[in-house]
């Protein structure tokens, strides 16, 4: 049912005559008559009786009137809701982040977004890149930021590479390794290595580096970076992370970095990913722009 016919019906009800209704809806009388006739045809009932003093509703017209008012109110509510979403006054945004970019990047972006657009309900999922990809393709997320090394050739995804922060090895300040001037990767293997789940190619790289000592045997795996950092600060475990992620811990003296040769190939590959061929919502578009802004400020 065309809402134009509904609006013409209401104009005729409120004006009481075709002449006055035509002025309100800016139609000729024949055109307005055809619109009302089409509505009557769709409903299968006569809605108006035409008399000497104008038009009056029939019994069918009186029965239709409250429904017509409800339809117009719903249409106006829909229009206002759509405008509010476009103006970022309301709505919902679901985004994802890998464990490392969750700290010192996505946390700051989310804070800024929440301040600027408090009417948007923001749903944040922290997970590994594999599960985030599945959630994105299942329409549970609009975009996510994670290590994109294994996703760069994915035909279902659009990828925007981000500037990559420095990767550091860190441990607690009184760790035995801090007393050595020069360290190689093999020196780390005497202690547990605390890391998140790694992309397959990075995992292969670490195993190759560790092969000289029989592989990586002492390992703690956890996708919660705050928990990993706490484990490192309270044990002899060693970890690797982008410098911005542990900047606060370094500044407070809870952990210290150590220089290790041969780790140049261990680097981040952050990227923003969203579904190919699907435009971002207004809220997701703003969030995407904020990610780029913050990533380039680091």
TrEMBL record:
It holds the Pfam family LysR_substrate. It comes from the Bacteria. The keyword DNA-binding applies. One of its GO terms (cellular component) is cytosol. Keywords: DNA-binding, Transcription, Transcription regulation. PROSITE patterns: HTH_LYSR (PS50931). Residues 1-58 form the HTH lysR-type domain. GO terms for molecular function: DNA binding; DNA-binding transcription factor activity. The keyword Nucleotide-binding does not apply. Belongs to the LysR transcriptional regulatory family. This is LysR family transcriptional regulator.
């Amino acid at each position: 049912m065309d809402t134009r016919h509904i609006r013409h019906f209401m104009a005729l009800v409120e004006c009481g005559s075709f002449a006055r209704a035509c002025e309100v809806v800016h139609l000729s009388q024949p055109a307005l008559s055809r619109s009302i006739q089409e509505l009557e045809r769709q409903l299968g009932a006569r809605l108006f009786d035409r008399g000497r003093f104008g038009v009056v509703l029939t019994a069918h017209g009186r029965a239709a009137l409250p429904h017509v008012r409800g339809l117009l109110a719903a249409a106006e509510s829909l229009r206002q809701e759509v405008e509010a979403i476009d103006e970022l006054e309301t709505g919902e945004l679901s985004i994802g982040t890998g464990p490392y970019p969750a700290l010192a990047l996505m946390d700051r972006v989310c804070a800024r977004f929440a301040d600027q657009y408090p009417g948007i309900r923001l749903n944040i999922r922290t997970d590994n890149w594999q599960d985030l990809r599945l959630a994105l393709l299942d329409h549970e997320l609009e975009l996510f930021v994670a290590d994109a090394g294994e996703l760069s050739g994915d035909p279902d995804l659009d990828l925007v590479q981000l500037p990559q922060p420095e990767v550091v090895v860190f441990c607690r300040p009184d760790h035995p390794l801090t007393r050595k001037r020069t360290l190689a990767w093999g020196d780390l293997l005497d202690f547990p290595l605390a890391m998140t789940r790694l992309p397959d190619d990075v995992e292969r790289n670490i195993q190759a580096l560790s092969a000289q000592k029989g592989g990586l045997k002492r390992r703690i795996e956890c996708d919660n970076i705050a928990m990993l950092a706490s484990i490192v600060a309270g044990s002899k475990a060693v970890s690797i992370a982008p410098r911005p992620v542990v900047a606060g811990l370094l500044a407070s003296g809870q952990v210290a970095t150590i220089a290790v040769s041969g780790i140049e190939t261990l680097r981040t590959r952050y990227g923003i990913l969203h579904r190919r061929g699907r435009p971002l919502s207004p809220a997701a578009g703003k969030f995407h722009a904020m990610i780029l802004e913050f990533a380039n400020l680091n």
